[in-house]
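Extended Data, panel c. Modelled sequence:
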Amino acid sequence: MSSITSEITVFFILIFLGFLLKFKFNKPDFKNGLKLYILNIALPATIFISIVSVQIDSKYLLFPLIALFFNIMIFLLSPIILRISNITDVRKKRTLYMLLASFAPGLSCFPIINEFLGYESLAKASIIDFGNKVFVLIFLFFVAFKFHNSNQNSTINNPNKPINTVLKSLFLEPINIVIIVAILFLSSRSSINDIPFLFIDLFSKIKDTLTPVVLIFVGLSIVFNRHVFKNILPLLFIRSGLCLLISTACIQTTGFTLSEDMKLFLILSLSSVSFWPFLHMTFVDNLEKNVEEEKKTFDTKYGLNFLAYSLPFSTITILSLFSNEELLLDFNSLYIISISFLLFGVFLTITFNPFKFKSKEKKLLNGSTFRRDLIANKLGTSQK
């Protein structure tokens, strides 16, 4: 067994252990505590060590624009995903518009990047993700309130208050603080050797806990029921297939030759959806607390379920691809995988929601019959 295969096997065992632990630690507080530790302590420490350990090139500062461009592209293609998935409920559509183009690489990608691609790739990924943060925190914030105003025919009484909260969150989030501090530290011509050993040793030991804790958290998040297979799993396959297809086409078009960078961008494109859009939707939901459930702008319950299942799906998908690294460097294989994901998502949609397609087919047939009868009547009238 190769070292990579062995490592991936260990990763899947950790996920399985997390799945088993959910029956013992089934209280939400335990899972939330792990998530807080990952996002506020382990991940910031890992990112800081990664950034100060490499030489940051000035071209890295353009990386956030790559993420922002990808976010906007997926957002513009979201109607296609919804159409393929046969989503007809308006509230679910708005909810998915908010989620599909958002990415959360911190939980689903960064530990894997750190283990398989190393410090430099993780430093790049952290900087790239800053552009994604701008998209999910600011752009999607305005999208949420545009949906709200359109649905409720209203305007926000004090628009400055929520946007100020969002901007504060953007710059006070521990991961973003660490990225800014690390870049400022390196820009002052300092290096990791200038940091006291005590802090480096502390951060390094915290960093070593990131991967196992995240994988156990992924296992805790796995839930099997019909609702997942019927309403969420098809969309996750279609989203991943489309994201992988677009990222592969972009990499091939731009002529990337560095295998590590190619793997990095492919992995990031398969990230799970972000929690921030859900917070925007929750804020809007609070504004509509006196509105009937079916008339609210978003379906937050569906959004939370989609968010919960996205993390284990993305993590397992990325690990599966890494089990054969050659696939990540072969364009033909990547196109086959992405199209297979799309087709399998459509297959699941038809399998679990056959009545929707039958009703659509019936409408088309009824429409054809109506047009045929109308033409026949016109011909009959003209002959008379």
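The longest helix spans residues 119-152. This feature is highlighted in the accompanying rendering.
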